[in-house]
Structure formats: structure tokens, C-alpha cells
Specification:
- The chain has one domain.
- The protein contains 6 helices and no strands.
- Helix 5 runs antiparallel to helix 6.
- The longest helix is centred in the middle third of the chain and has 13 residues.
- It comes from Cylicostephanus goldi (Nematode worm).
- InterPro entries: MTTP.
Length: 100
């Protein structure tokens, strides 16, 4: 039921929808929320606001879910080597997650 709920609320095609979905997913720190948020990082498809919301979802998740793919993505965010420029806030949040 939870997986279907997550799928339904994350069936988005614009950033406004993603922001609403990520706000809900932040309160559901489970594997499915984490996986969805990780897929929104370091792309040129979403706004900075969506990326920040995705970082907050990941920060709320259990650190045992973190893998090398996420760690490498967070390092890219910190170093500002993603397709879109990284803000200072995004860089700081990426480091906070890495240090968690």
C-alpha cells in the first residue's frame, strides 16, 4: 500500500508537483522515498528547489541506505560538477549528508 501511495504521489511531470511529493516523502523515510529522491539529484531536468527537497528526503532517510552511487553524487554536488550549477545551500546540505 505504501509503495503504491509513493508511486501515485510521485507521478509528476513538473517541478511544482515534485516539490509537493517530496514534502510528503520527507515524512516517509523509507527505501522507496530515498530511491526516488536519489534519482532527482545532479540532473538537468529539475530546478534547484526540487534538488534541495530531494536532499532533505535523503537526509531524513536512514544512513544505512546510502550507497556509493549516492556518495559520488553528493561529492559532485559539493564540487559543483553536476549539469546545473550547485548553490551554496545544496553544497552544504550534501556535505551534511556525507558527514551523517
Amino acid at each position: 500500500i505504501v509503495t503504491k501511495f509513493i508511486h501515485d504521489i510521485s507521478n509528476c511531470d513538473n517541478d511544482k508537483c515534485w516539490l509537493k511529493a517530496l514534502r510528503v516523502l520527507r515524512n516517509l523515510p523509507i527505501n522507496a522515498s530515498y530511491d526516488l529522491a536519489q534519482g532527482l539529484l545532479c540532473t538537468n531536468k529539475h530546478s534547484r528547489e526540487v534538488q534541495m527537497a530531494a536532499l532533505h528526503v535523503i537526509k531524513a532517510a536512514d544512513p544505512s541506505l546510502y550507497d556509493m552511487k549516492l556518495i559520488n553524487t553528493l561529492i559532485k554536488l559539493f564540487r559543483n560538477t553536476c549539469p546545473q550549477p550547485t548553490s551554496t545551500g545544496e553544497s552544504q546540505l550534501a556535505v551534511d549528508i556525507l558527514l551523517k
